[in-house]
Write a structure and sequence with these properties.
By secondary structure, the protein is mainly alpha-helical. It is globular, with a radius of gyration of 19 Å. The longest helix has 29 residues. The protein is built from 13 helices and no strands. Helix 2 runs parallel beside helix 12, helix 4 packs antiparallel against helix 8 and helix 6 crosses helix 8. The protein has one domain.
Length: 307
């Protein structure tokens, strides 16, 4: 069975990869803004505010472009599932970058492309090749190396970026599933809307029942404008990423996430002054190598089909 994206032609696939490149390059900038709020407001509250702002803005855009009909959607449970995966991925990753060096959290989350390739084979019936399994083994080895020093330093909360990676991979697969169902604006509104709903629920529950999730009071204006900034940049990046999934396969898009490592590492060192652990760096390089191996395998398959 041929991949859908390849049947659409190499130009569409190349366009999808370019969109994904821009999207993934923008995410670390928003992550840095989020990390700068550590200690100002709880992570789950920041996430809830950020997605509430994004959902409201997308609702206005959707209404202006499509009217009331834009809010009608088929298979609504799929959009609820997309929102839930984004909720889990967001709250775990925000919590991770609050307590860990940004570069380490991003590097561990780089297991995402391998997971996405596996999920594509299982759920989308996209062809799985031996190279994918080799890349998977290498990537998981890198994750284990990275987690060892991080678990020692931060405790088992260091697995938070790993949970986030699983959630984001599931989100990419669900994006692919609904990519032909509704307009881009409707799809982006619904994922942001449901993520905001789940995050608001988690924030309220955490405030009353989890001591370290207690909200000290209303946010300072400085927190609000930073959430607005992240909402604008991240929503734009998710918008580009969704368009990318309409042009090429989820497995082909996922390896491009590795551009985040360079950007996140630079920010982590020069902005936050985080030290770079050599053992963790070795694990991160193994994860990156696995992604490049997977990317090379995808390129070979594309060349064979085009020929």
């Amino acid at each position: 069975m041929l991949n859908v994206s390849l049947s659409r032609g190499p130009k569409a696939a190349a366009g999808g990869i370019t969109l994904a490149l821009v999207a993934f390059a923008g995410f670390p900038l928003g992550d840095a803004v989020i990390k700068s709020m550590a200690g100002d407001w709880p992570a789950q509250a920041v996430a809830a505010l950020r997605f509430s702002i994004g959902a409201l803005a997308l609702a206005v855009i959707l209404f202006v472009r499509e009217g009331r009909s834009g809010f009608h959607v088929n298979r609504p449970w799929l959009h609820v599932a997309r929102g839930f995966t984004l909720f889990v991925g967001t709250i775990t990753f925000f919590s991770a970058i609050y307590i860990m060096p940004l570069a380490d959290a991003v590097a561990i989350s780089f297991i995402n492309p391998i997971l996405t390739a596996l999920f594509s084979g299982w759920f989308l019936k996209e062809k799985m090749r031996p190279g994918t399994w080799v890349a998977t083994i290498i990537a998981f080895g890198g994750v284990l190396i990275m987690l060892r020093p991080n678990v020692a330093a931060f405790g088992w909360v260091a697995i938070l970026p790993l949970i986030s990676a699983f959630s984001v991979s599931a989100m990419l697969i669900l994006n692919r599933t609904v990519s032909a169902g509704r307009s881009i604006f409707a799809a982006q509104f619904y994922i942001a809307f449901w993520a905001a709903i789940f995050l608001i629920i988690a924030t309220v529950v955490g405030h009353w029942f989890v001591p370290f999730m207690t909200i000290p009071g209303t946010p300072d204006w400085n927190v609000v404008w930073r959430c607005v900034l992240v909402a604008i940049t991240a929503t734009g990046c998710h918008f580009l990423l969704y368009m990318a999934t309409m042009r090429t396969t989820a497995a082909a898009i996922a390896p491009i996430v590795y551009i985040q490592l360079l950007i996140a590492t630079v920010i982590s060192i020069f902005v936050f002054g985080d030290p770079i652990d050599r053992t963790a760096m070795m694990g991160g390089l193994l994860i990156m190598f696995s992604g490049l191996l997977l990317w090379r395998s995808e390129r070979k398959l594309a060349s064979v089909i085009e020929a």
